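DM from R.C. (forwarded with permission)

"hey, sorry to bug you on a friday — could you get me a structure for this? deadline for the figure draft is monday and I only need the backbone to look sensible"
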Amino acid sequence: MNNPVSELYNNQRTLFGRGSLQKLLPLLAAEPQPTLLFCGHSFLRSAHYAEMKETLSTHILAYEIVSHEASPADIDGWVARWRGQVKRVVAIGGGSVIDAAKAFSAMMQHPLPVARYLEKVGDTAVEALTLPLIAVPTTAGTGSEVTQNAVVTDQQEIQVKASLRHPLFVPSVAILDPDLLRGTPDTVLASCAIDAFTHLFEAYLSKKGNFFTRQLAISGMQQFIRAWPALNRMDDAGDAAREAMMMASWLGGVSLSSAGLGVIHGIAGELGAIKPFHHGEVCGRLLFPFLQQLAQSEHPEQQQLMQELYSQLFGRSALNPALALHDWLQQQAIVAFWQGGPHLSEEEKEWVLQRANSKNSLREYGYEEMKQMLVTGWPD
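My reply, with the result:
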């Protein structure tokens, strides 16, 4: 294919499996040091926290609540509050929690405000310095526990959604416990899962991809296909589905770090700079019209890759694999998250389109094609 050499960024240690959260307390006890916990309100209300609260409190200084995608002001505030007091960070939550903890861990070792180091708007390179971080995802979607970037969002001042990025920013430890997904609302399960699929799918179709990265992506999408229809079942099939989706999410993080993303994220990243929409839902709303466009593509490499992918995922061929995949995803979804929902004004659509890009797509997508994706995802 186009790119013969791949780089793989990974955790120093990954613990995977149902009940693996139980490994957290021994990890903290083995190396006592001042530790700050980042988490969300949902974790503090959970049975998991109730079971470990007493012991966990002996290993942490305090906790910071992350209720939205962290802004530069949030991160700078946390750093100012804790600089010189914290030696290790634990993040238990979804992608926003883990990204916030990754950014905080890095900025604790850097002197300037975080915006100075951000892609798109920064003017200073990050250094290979960060605090050790233990990441425990409670959703399966972003793969942030295994990526080298921390997403920072400012929807008020500079209106940007950008990454703080360095290979050293991959969390040193990831604990992947599928039981943490049990009881998650259907809309969250589905929106996060389609984010994982989009990471895998765009990495698979990336112009930076090769045999290595595509095999990783295919493996993740196979786990996604196994999991997608049964994510909310409260039985053995549901437990197996959530385990498979946790694996798909992790592989999505590995894949995007190795091969990059495409036009869906080229649009979604700009939309996230101005609207507080769930990132996974945004990706899903853009994925479906992208598949419709892909169904009409005459690009030979896209056609070949789609035929190969459909065969790998479903064990058979399809006359139009992009349309067949589109229909299967919608028919098997546990909730139709792409229907109804938030509104985008014409002015907001235009703002996004003026800044969107095709990233690592195999071909460039023009203004009208990206506009069609936005209009289909958010009809008037």
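R.C.: lifesaver. The first strand starts at residue 13 and ends at 16.
me: no worries. DSSP finds 14 helices and eight strands in the chain.
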